[in-house]
Amino acid sequence: MEYEQIIYAQHDAVTLITLNRPQKLNAWTYRMRGELVDAILRSNENPSIGAIIITGAGKGFCAGADMTDTFKTKLDGKDPQDAASQATGRNYHSKDWVHLVRESKPLIAAVNGAAVGVGLTQILPFDVIVASDRARFGMFFIKMGIVPELASTHFLVQRMGFGKASEMVLSGRLYGAQEAFEKGLADRISPHEKLMDEAFEVAKGIAANPIPQLRMIKKLITQNGSETDLDLAMQRETDLLEYCYTTPEHKEAVQAFLEKRPPKFR
Fold first, then answer.
1. CA dist., res. 73 & res. 244, Å (int)
2. Rounded to whole angstroms, what are the CA distances from 19 to 62, 134, 211?
3. Which residues contact 31 (CB under 8 A, 6 or more apart)?
4. Cβ(12)–Cβ(49) below 8 Å
5. Disulfide-capable partner of 198 in 55, 85, 134, 190 (CB 3.0 to 4.6 Å)?
6. 3-state DSSP helix/strand/coil % of the chain, to nearest 5
7. CA torsion sign, 254 to 103 to 29 to 25?
8. What pLDDT is stored for residue 93 in this prediction?
9. Which of 129, 124, 169 is closest to 151 using CA atoms?
């Protein structure tokens, strides 16, 4: 796919995907969604990639859905997904975003500015959220007379807790980076000029690990994060652990330890 609304670049074992509509604060469109899906799938299929960073060009991360491309188009009785599919020649809109993210190689959001509406909900299932001290976060759905999407009412509670998540979605208030970090929405906060350095530090540390096991652990966190049946949670871990014992990655890790050298997973 030819990208028009994102930039795709590989930096050693890390993919950097940049939302690239800076004149509109990277407002989300169905085309952007399709390009993001394609870029994530492309990274997942590349054996040299171990982690993925997504950030925004210019001053914003993603200022929510593009009003003209989404809401107005729908109110006019048109389907913006059809237009995006025709423009790209591909239909990724049936691809479930949350499942894609949770089944993907590790994803890190480097939030450089405003992340509101879908700009925030699309990154809540990511593995790590690193925020610039200039970042802003908002769940503005109530202000638009609609409700949140992308299982964000689940992930927001997991990240912030019931009360803090409730306040955020019911008030529609904008949160600064420090408040978002203190309340658990962002995992790290960084001076703006060091944001990408910190995001790459996180990504490279993760990418150095074996890819199959990274994705297995993500699966366990997804399934067990809110599991109330502890026997089932342990059984899932046991099943994957027994499988891991047979993998070349485990054998390499043991051999590297015995030989007192760093493991070579790829």
1. 49
2. 8, 17, 25
3. 4, 5, 69, 84, 87, 88
4. no
5. 190
6. 50, 15, 35
7. negative
8. 62
9. 124
Decide: 122 and 95 in contact? Cβ < 8 Å: no
For 217, residues 6+ apart whose C-beta sits below 8 A from its C-beta are: none
Q: How many CB atoms lie within 10 A of CB 9?
A: 10
All structural domains of the chain with their residue ranges = 6-207, 211-258
**Three-class DSSP labels, 55-81:** EECCCCCECCECCHHHHHHHHCCCCHH
CB 203 within 8 A of CB 14: yes
* Among 164, 112, 114, CA closest to 140: 114
Mean pLDDT for back-to-back runs of 10 residues, the chain (266 residues): 96 98 96 96 98 98 86 57 57 80 98 98 98 98 95 98 98 98 98 98 97 98 97 98 98 97 92
- Overall CATH class of domain 6-207: alpha beta
Query: In the prediction, which pLDDT does 72 show?
Result: 53
Per-residue confidence (pLDDT) for residue 44, from 0 to 100: 98
Lookup: tokens for 32: 């952007």
Indicate yes or no: pTM above 0.90.
Answer: yes
Alpha carbon distances (Å) from 222 to 7, 106, 110: 28, 12, 21
Instruction: Say what the pLDDT of residue 24 is.
Output: 96
Which residues on neighbouring strands pair with residue 54, listed in sequence order?
17, 109
